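Retry 2 of 3 after timeout on previous attempt. Resubmitting structure tokens to design endpoint.
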């Protein structure tokens, strides 16, 4: 990891949106979930950041909670038929998972950079 200027911290919001957590300008990912080797703007090294299965746990908890809560409300409050439940809520869970996965992976990479985690 390149040295940062004094007073500069790690920006978790930038990382959640796929930007370099150190400078907020470079790209964090080179593809959908593949972390870049380094920032093209500030040179921060991302090679040591390995999130493993960490983001998946949070994605499952968040998307599962929202989809299951929506399913229960749909059944108990609105009395939806089974075909409607099965056509809406699995799709909601998949879309939420696809949206949340890169965001939470970026936050995990930023957390590892902040705490200087090494292999």
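Retry 2 succeeded. Sequence:
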């Amino acid at each position: 990891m390149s040295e940062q200027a004094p007073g500069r911290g790690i920006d978790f919001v930038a990382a959640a949106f796929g930007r370099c957590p150190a400078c907020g300008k470079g790209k964090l990912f080179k593809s959908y979930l593949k972390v870049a080797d380094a920032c093209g703007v500030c040179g921060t090294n991302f090679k040591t950041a390995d999130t493993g299965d960490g983001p998946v746990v949070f994605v499952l908890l968040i998307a599962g909670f929202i989809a299951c809560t929506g399913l229960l409300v749909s059944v108990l409050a609105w009395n939806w038929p089974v075909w409607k439940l099965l056509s809406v809520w699995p799709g909601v869970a998949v879309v939420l998972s696809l949206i949340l996965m890169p965001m939470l992976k970026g936050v995990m990479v930023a957390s590892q950079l902040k705490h200087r985690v090494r292999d």
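Attempt log closed. Residues 12-114 form one domain.
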